[in-house]
Amino acid sequence: MRTLSMTILLAAVLSGCSGKTPNPPVDTPQTPGEPQTPEEPLPSGPPVTQGPPNVPEFEPAFPGQTRVPAIQTKTAFQVTEIASGFRNPWAIAFLPDQRMLVTEKPTGSLYIVTPQGVKSPAVAGLPRVDGRNQGGLLDVEVGPDYAQSGLIYWTYYEPRSGGNGLAVARAKLVEGEQPRVESVQVIFRMMPTLESTLHAGGRLVFTPDGKLFVTLGERSILEGRVQARDVKSHFGKVVRINPDGSVPDDNPYVNTEGAKPEIWSVGHRNILSAALDRQNRLWTVEMGPRGGDELNRPEAGKDYGWPTIGYGEEYSGAPIHESTQGPGMEQPVYYWDPVISPSGMTIYTGELFPEWRDNVFIGGLSSQALVRLMMRNDRVVGEERLLTDLGVRVREVVQGPEGALYLLTDATNGKLLKLTPR
Question: Is Phosphoprotein included in the keywords of this UniProt record (predicted)?
Answer without folding.
Answer: no
